[in-house]
Each structure stands twice: as C-alpha cells, then as structure tokens.
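User: Run a structure prediction on this.
Assistant: Running it now.
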Amino acid sequence: MKILHVCEYVRGGITTYVNQILNDQVASGEFSSVDVLMSRFNSDKLLIRGVHVHYYRYKRNLFNFLSAIIQVNQAIRTIRPDIIHVHSSFAGLFVRACFLFKKKRPKIVYCAHGWSFMMEVPPYKKRMYGLLERVLARKTDRIINISNQEFIGSKKYKIPASKSLVIPNGIDDRPLNLKDVPIALDHSRINLLFVGRFDRQKGIDILIHFFKEHPLENVRLYTIGENVLDSFLMKIPDNIVTLGWIDHRMIDSYYQKFDAVIIPSRWEGFGLVAVEAMKNRKAVIASNRGDLPELVQHGINGYLFDLNHLEELRRILTQLNKQTLRAMGEKGFALYKERYTSEKLNLRLMKVYKQLMDLNEKPSPPQAAAPYEAK
C-alpha cells in the first residue's frame, strides 16, 4: 500500500500533525512507500527517515492555483499512490481538481484542518466555500473532521455525512528534546505563553492590545511565533516578551518553563496548542471559539473567556495563582492521555485506510456521534 500526503504550507500545527502520522506510518510496516508533497515556500523541513519528501513551487495567490494543480497532478502520476491523504483546504482543491473529470483515481482522504466556511469571513464567502467543498466531496472517499464542532459545521453546509467522521488530532506523549532553554523568568509572577502564527485567526492582536491597555503587575506574557499569512505590524508593549519562531522540536522545553498557556483565537478548527500544553501539564486559558470549549473545561483544566467581553479575561488573569494552575495542568494531562495521544490518532487513521483498501469489505458508515470511542 502506497500513501501520499499532500499539503499546502507545512508550518506550525500542520507540521506537528504531519510529523506524528508520518513517523507512525513509516514504523508500522503497513506501507510500501510513504511520500509527502508540499509547497517549497513557507514550509518546515521534514526530516523523517523513510519518508520521501517532494515539493511544488507555490505561494498562496489566485494566479498560482492552476500551476499548483498541474504540478500536483504531475507528482501524483509519477508517485502512483493507492491512497492520497490531503491536508488543508487549498491542498484539497489542488488534488481533487485533478480528478473532477476522471473516473479512475486513488482513494482520497481529505482533512480541511479547519473548514474555510467556519472562519470569520463574510456570509457570501461562507456559501461559496461550502459550495466548492460539496463539489469536491464527490471526488473524496473519506472526509475527516478534527472536532465535533467541525462536523456539526460541515453538516450545516451539506458536506456528505455518509463520507464524514471525526478523528481528533493527537500528539506523541514523549517529551521532545527536553533541554534547559535560556529564559530568565520572574517566578514571583504568573508567566503566560502564547504559541502560534502572528495572524488574525490566532488573535495575537487582541492579546497585544489587551496587555497594552491592562498592564497587569502579576502577569508576564511571552510569545513564540511570527508572521505566516497576515501582515502584522503592531507595536509590542514592554510587558510582552517575544521569543520569535523556534524549532518545534524544542517546544516541550519551552512549555515546561511556563505557568500556563493562553490561546485568544478568533476561530480554531481544533487547537493543537491546547493539547501540547495539556501534554506538558499546563493549564490553558482560551477563547470560547471553535473547538476550544471541547478541549478546555472551564475551572477544570483551564479557563474560557469571551473575546467580546475582555473584562472576563482581566478577571481571570488577576485571580491566577500557581498552585491552582498546577492542579489544572494535572487534570489537563489526564484528559490528554484519555483522548489526544498520537497512538489513538494513528490507530483511527489506519482503520480508515484499511477499510478503503479492502475491496471485499464495504466500509461501515462513519460514526461521528462518539468520536472518542475508537480504540
């Protein structure tokens, strides 16, 4: 069985996700070939022994779409995979457009990693994205939603439920390259960490404006990340420390230094940063958007706040104490072990692949109502 993973930009959370499944698929012995195809621009290097990495020339621009479709089609014809696992909306367009007018094709598994029609965009764009996804779904065998919230949203836009299922993201429970990173923290304060792209989706502008307007004496904010998609030109106030974009293989070393992680996203298909924090026994303070309320149970493993009522965030931050945050971190770790390990993710994906390849067994209808029961 040959599998090809096709991505647009492999950066941040997508890097984490793809690394998890590629490592497992190479080690499993189930595949004769594991390949990945991604944009040469704006992508992290994937250095996984046994994985064949291919690139196409592309930057996100309407005028580059046709070129990307042609390059992706050429790569598919050369590699000749049995299964194509597609990651993200744009990659989903590039791959499935190749087969719109062809009968014979590989099995296609598609994961949007956050539906475009669930983003903060005008209603006419939501309708347009929904229509496009319905058309492309005709050339898709399985559609993976990364959360219950995503599945509910997909039904609203009439994405075929018969092809859809929920498989939450998962990450390896082994700490990565733990080292003593050179950060001098003031342990008399609550040290918060933001991890993510500096763009509108992740809400970093909200966080910067909040700390500029409310310079809390008991809290110090640190940020890991940089621009990926949006132009970001906000002045960083003195009470925020920027650490830049770090090698993701070092991320656990950074998480373990801090008291809690903050996620002010405007929308979020899953919220992988929250799971990374939970793995490292850190409480999570998050907006109540997208899938984050599925990951963060208010008052249990962290706190939720409303982006439209930031006085809630101010009240939460002024009342933080380290002992409570440590207890919340332990509860978050237990939730992570129950639901979000890479082992659970890869077992669920392998089951999908085998069902699609078994010509003698009709794949059973996906069960999205209880996504965490699969073993």
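The mean pLDDT is 89.
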